Predict the structure.
Amino acid sequence: DVKVTQSSRYLVKRTGEKVFLECVQDMDHENMFWYRQDPGLGLRLIYFSYDVKMKEKGDIPEGYSVSREKKERFSLILESASTNQTSMYLCASSLPGRALETQYFGPGTRLLVL
Amino acid sequence: AQSVTQLDSQVPVFEEAPVELRCNYSSSVSVYLFWYVQYPNQGLQLLLKYLSGSTLVKGINGFEAEFNKSQTSFHLRKPSVHISDTAEYFCAVTPRDSGAGSYQLTFGKGTKLSVIP
């Protein structure tokens, strides 16, 4: 079974702090994704990566950056956290190629920025 | 660009009753279609997907969906729901072409299914 793990289930940070969300997958997937999930808005793609050191912006990249130094690990960085970044963050991975491949999701990190 | 509309944000249904969760999409190109489910306090998992062939797609846990190209719909159905089906369900699409956008799934806003004992 594919396993996607996220470093924290719950996180509380202060406004202005630098925040790192880590995601690790164990299936040697090329593609990895970071989504934000908000009530009534569904999932919105922040960034995705199709290979090590490669990244593409999604729909809402403002205020976020990412890092992919190793194939199995994809990090989401909030350079200076703000209260409007309070949300559920979901990581996913998939086989190489286009998005017709199934995406496998982690359990999510619920971030509260005070 | 693609968009997905899930017509009902919440659907309550009694146990053992049938259910239909509605999904309509808009796209200028042909698409692949997906339904994902999110159980409480978990990430999403794939229920089923339509790539080609028969327009009736069967998924896990007794769910099925029918692709209707003329109505641009991909409604999800189950003939008899169980308490364990209580979850949030997301419809998603991605373009069939191989352009840059084809890495990306566009999700609907979700439908919360509540199964009442």
Q: What stands out?
A: The longest strand of chain A covers residues 42-51. Chain A has a mean pLDDT of 93. The two ends of chain A are 37 Å apart (CA to CA).
